Fold:
Amino acid sequence: MEEKLQEALWCAHQLFARRLVRGSTGNISFRHENKIYISRSGSCFGRLSKEDFAVLSVNGQIVEGLPSKEYPLHLTFYRQDSETNAVIHTHSLFTTALSCMRKPDVSIQKLYSYTPYLKMLTEGKIGVAAYGPPGSKQLFDTFEKVFSADTRTYVLKNHGIAVGAKSAYKAFDIVEEFETSASLAAILESREEAGLRTI
Structure:
């Protein structure tokens, strides 16, 4: 338990330090002994401490604290994929910009053509969930409909990204690589539009 907690705290602090989350946005969770520990509502990744985790049952019953309003996103991962032990959800700049594209699924395929790393980490499996207001039943229902146990990375339309993995460290790696790939795409595509040569 302590190891998982420290891992989640490291990831939260690093995400904030690297400006992949801002203010009180984003949420992180991990599974331990059939309970889900998730960052509480209104918490800030930069100041996150062990006291800032609420506790849920896998069935969604609140055991302790006030969880992030988007905890149903996390529960979908845990209920439908027994190998998921951590979930990270962020609204980083370039990832969110990509999620606002008219056809984010097409934009995701373009990401794979720049460097191999995102495809390696996700095995080329990235889902897209239609827009639903943050924290809404519409969002959770939409996400559950597109969720597949063999896909652990999802772009939420006009919102951000949600990643499940065997550990918080692995989820962190995907979140960071997705942001790097999205920022690289934005830079290269803007150069191409300006008529500048790219490598």
